[in-house]
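Good morning,

Attaching, inline, the backbone tokens for the sequence recovery test we're adding to the shared suite. The designed sequence is right after.
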């Protein structure tokens, strides 16, 4: 210990008769420490106590000067809670929060003296526990709960590349959605206001909000009590649009190029693997991040066509939000798909020929093999933004090389030699299983599924095309929300589990309204009516294609619907529309068999027909009941190019259809040889349309 001469008691302001003070000095309350030691019978000597107390007092003075700038560490721990207390008690919370955030160092010592209410401390503990369960815990701040959300959309402000404009972009997007919602809701508010006895739109919205808080049963009850709803639907629930899926998950081996695999790729190793953990995060507004291929997006495209592909941007946004999305691309040429046959590999021609879908497929596969699927995806997105697609294959390769250099993936022009070599040869050496894709298989798969460039499928659910960019975003959001809810239900039911089974297969197997092929009638649209005199409808029974199937006989059909197609026989689009309608008869949905429903079809010209190929199609379809639907489809596909000089040329092409029986081929030739110089129906409102 120290003797009295070692310590200047008077200078420290300490009375030796008072060994310890019952107060905190320099963060230490010596009096309370002594009470604990006294209980154990281990009290120090008075001289030592005086020396300790005097030293603490001297330290207190120095610390007070330091605390005028920044409080000590032991006082900084509850600083966030103390700041929250000030903000909550302020008449201007936002202004106070701004002032505290911008001036924290200079006012920290004042905040340290603020008392935090116990209720706020309890609330903070509960919030921290909740944040830990849903994953809203900042990895850079220990166990601190942190998260910024705009209408439940997470904004990663801790990302090094974050800037305030990203936050503004999210806010603008939400504002746009609110305006769209308002434009839809406002027209019906007047009716709802009258029904709820309120003249205020705002009060009406509050009434709806209160009903939703009460639960769905209460909301349905209010809806059924509305006079308009009762007249339309009676006691039934309000109608909900049903979704349908196309089975694009099976049969695509060696056809679809999958650019990533959430379950196997090393980029996703840090993602949680538990579906239950994912489920909890999603319930509290978090992204459904889990190391499973929960969602699969198939994009059918032809980069050479110049057709916009907005689903690629959707994929990029979902991936940035850490949504477990597997991306598959099917690159095909539209004419090849329509013909059901891949065009031959084009010659190099010194790189001066126009680039083709086959070239895009080869380049994408090579990039996936050499640099990974995500790099190839970045190139695909970049190339889809080209304003001019009428370029040579050499220029197309140059654009890839320039972008790879810009990303820092490669340096120099060495990779150009490799890209040119594979485009010339049409082959890639040493491919892996994932990229063992052939263009011929891709065309065959697209033709079998009746899908074409411009289409996209989210877990088999068709996404809207790019014809209406205004409504595209809202429609995609609605489909994503629907499918996310569907996935959660399958997880809860145990259909999707943590085992190795494919999520994609489970979704397609358990999905409602699953179709093996796509056809235009599945597109949801509002009915459009026009006046059509009954005398204009061809009453010839021979032109009626009646469905036939081993699963159900025509005598068993309870409901038979007639769909008549008016198409342009002189265009590829028109003949394609006719074939799409015929496919319903060839491959109808299983649900129709169960309900004993069938559709008969009839195909008529929408405009003048005078070419030999068009007249041949007209004659075949006028006598369609004499043939099998598959044979008629084969004949129409063979006539698609339409460049025939005479009826004999048409007959020669039909005679080469090896998949059609010889006797049937002769019968088709007899039909197309019927003399018709020109067919001139009355004007129609559109070139290609259906009536039902």
């Amino acid at each position: 210990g120290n003797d009295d001469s070692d310590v200047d008691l008077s200078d420290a302001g300490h009375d030796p008769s008072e060994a310890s003070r019952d107060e905190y000095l320099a963060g230490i309350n010596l009096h309370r420490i002594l009470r604990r030691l006294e209980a154990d019978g281990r009290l120090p000597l008075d001289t030592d106590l005086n020396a300790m107390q005097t030293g603490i007092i001297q330290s207190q003075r120095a610390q007070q000067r330091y605390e005028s700038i920044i409080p000590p560490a032991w006082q900084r721990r509850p600083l966030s809670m103390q700041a929250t207390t000030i903000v909550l008690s302020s008449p201007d919370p936002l202004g106070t929060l701004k002032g505290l955030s911008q001036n924290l160092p200079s006012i920290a010592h004042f905040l340290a003296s603020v008392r935090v209410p116990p209720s706020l401390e309890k609330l903070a503990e509960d919030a921290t526990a909740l944040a830990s369960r849903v994953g809203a815990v900042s990895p850079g701040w220990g166990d601190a709960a942190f998260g910024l959300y705009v209408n439940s959309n997470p904004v990663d402000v801790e990302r090094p590349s974050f800037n305030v404009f990203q936050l503004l972009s999210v806010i603008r997007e939400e504002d746009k959605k609110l305006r769209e919602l308002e434009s839809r809701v406002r027209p019906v508010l007047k009716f709802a206001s009258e029904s709820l006895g309120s003249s205020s739109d705002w009060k009406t919205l509050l009434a709806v909000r209160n009903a939703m808080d009460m639960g769905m049963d209460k909301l349905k009850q209010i809806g059924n009590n509305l006079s308009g709803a009762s007249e339309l639907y009676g006691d039934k629930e309000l109608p909900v649009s049903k979704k349908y899926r196309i089975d694009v998950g099976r049969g695509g081996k060696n056809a679809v190029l999958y650019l990533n695999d959430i379950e196997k790729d090393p980029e996703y190793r840090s993602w949680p693997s538990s579906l239950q953990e994912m489920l909890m995060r999603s319930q509290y507004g978090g992204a459904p991040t889990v190391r499973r291929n929960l969602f699969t997006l198939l994009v059918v495209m032809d980069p050479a066509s110049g057709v916009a592909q907005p689903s690629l941007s959707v994929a990029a946004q979902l991936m940035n939000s850490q949504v477990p999305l597997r991306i598959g691309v099917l690159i095909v040429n539209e004419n090849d798909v329509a013909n059901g046959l891949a065009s031959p590999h084009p010659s190099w021609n010194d790189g001066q020929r126009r680039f083709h879908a086959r070239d895009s497929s080869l380049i994408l596969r090579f990039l996936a093999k050499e640099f990974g699927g995500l790099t190839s995806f970045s190139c695909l997105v970049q190339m889809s933004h080209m304003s001019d697609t009428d370029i040579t294959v050499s220029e197309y390769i140059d654009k890839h090389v320039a972008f790879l250099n810009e990303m820092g993936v490669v340096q120099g022009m060495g990779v150009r030699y490799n890209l040119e070599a594979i485009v010339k040869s049409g082959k890639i050496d040493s491919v892996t299983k994932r990229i063992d894709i052939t263009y011929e298989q891709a065309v065959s798969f697209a033709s079998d599924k009746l899908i074409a460039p411009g289409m996209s499928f989210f877990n088999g659910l068709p996404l809207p095309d790019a014809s209406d960019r205004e409504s595209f975003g809202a429609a995609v959001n609605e489909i994503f929300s629907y499918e996310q809810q569907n996935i959660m239900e399958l997880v809860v039911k145990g259909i999707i589990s943590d085992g190795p089974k494919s999520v994609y297969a489970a979704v397609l197997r358990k999905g409602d309204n699953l179709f093996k092929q796509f056809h235009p009638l599945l597109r949801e649209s509002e009915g459009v009516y026009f006046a059509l005199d009954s005398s204009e409808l061809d009453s010839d029974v021979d032109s009626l294609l009646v469905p036939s199937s081993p699963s159900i006989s025509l005598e068993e059909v309870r409901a038979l619907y007639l769909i008549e197609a008016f198409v342009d026989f002189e265009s590829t689009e028109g003949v394609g529309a006719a074939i799409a309608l015929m496919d319903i008869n060839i491959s109808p949905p299983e649900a129709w068999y169960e309900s004993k429903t069938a559709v008969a079809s009839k195909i008529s010209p929408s405009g003048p027909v005078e070419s030999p190929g068009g007249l041949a199609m007209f004659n075949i379809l006028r006598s369609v009941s004499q043939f099998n639907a598959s044979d008629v489809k084969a004949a129409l596909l063979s006539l698609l190019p339409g460049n025939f000089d005479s009826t004999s040329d048409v007959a020669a092409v039909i005679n080469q259809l090896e998949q059609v029986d010889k006797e049937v081929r002769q019968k088709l030739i007899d039909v197309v040889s019927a003399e018709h110089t020109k067919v001139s129906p009355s004007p129609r409102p559109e070139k290609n349309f259906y009536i039902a």
